[in-house]
Design brief:
About 25% of the residues lie in helices and about 25% in strands. It is an alpha/beta fold. The relative contact order is 0.16. It has a single domain, classed as Rossmann fold (3-Layer(aba) Sandwich), CATH 3.40.50. The two termini are about 20 Å apart. The mean pLDDT is about 85. The strands form 2 sheets. A 6-stranded mixed sheet has the order 5-4-3-6-7-8, sandwiched between helices. The chain has a two-stranded antiparallel sheet with strand order 1-2.
């Protein structure tokens, strides 16, 4: 096998498997926040005077990553490729690493983590409890990256929910409170 073929395989594995521009647009079309600011650098379109308006759209998404032992390192790499793709499309992302409990939370800044915390069992409720408890942070939605092997959640999150399941994962009726999508190979 030539070096060129190896490089092409590596590049293909780093590309996201989901069209996040389309998925995020559909998922968060009604929940994106808009902020209007007055600025003297811009002329008002209505009156032709200063100050004019500047419109800023923002989007804050909580991304829960299943770090349980049933998720392989290859699937974790796939998850972070998807997170990076969402981040490149302009979303502000808070990553929540969780297995049976929340292990770590941080804002994603474009750099893959060196290692993930957890590798125990799986429970979905700690993430939803965290989202409901943090009332001072407004999330436009929650994307849960998982293999789906866990009991059905009991706690309903206060924001929209989008399940993303690994190719070999369990996409079943136990994933409630939101839409579910399985990543293709």
């Amino acid at each position: 096998m030539s070096i060129r073929n190896l490089i092409n395989i590596i590049i293909e594995k780093r590309n996201p498997k989901i069209n996040w521009k389309r998925a995020l647009k559909i998922f968060s079309s009604s929940s994106r926040r808009t902020k209007v600011k007055f600025t003297v650098k811009r002329v008002s379109k209505r009156y032709g005077t200063r100050p004019g308006l500047k419109i800023q759209r923002s989007q804050k998404i909580a991304v829960a990553v299943d770090t349980s032992g049933s998720v392989s390192y290859q699937e974790l790499n796939m998850f972070f490729n998807e997170i990076h793709s969402m981040w490149q499309n302009g979303a502000e992302i808070e990553v929540i690493e969780c297995d049976a409990a929340i292990q770590k939370t941080y804002n994603y800044k474009g750099k893959f983590p060196e290692f993930v915390h957890g590798r125990g069992g799986t429970a979905f409720d700690p993430v939803f409890e965290y989202l409901n408890k943090n009332r001072n942070v407004l999330y436009d939605g929650c994307i849960y990256l998982t293999d789906g092997y866990a009991a059905a959640p009991e706690i309903k999150p206060r924001c929209k929910l989008f399940w993303v399941i690994t190719p070999e994962g369990s996409l079943g009726s136990h994933l409630k409170f939101g839409r579910a999508l399985q990543i293709n190979h």
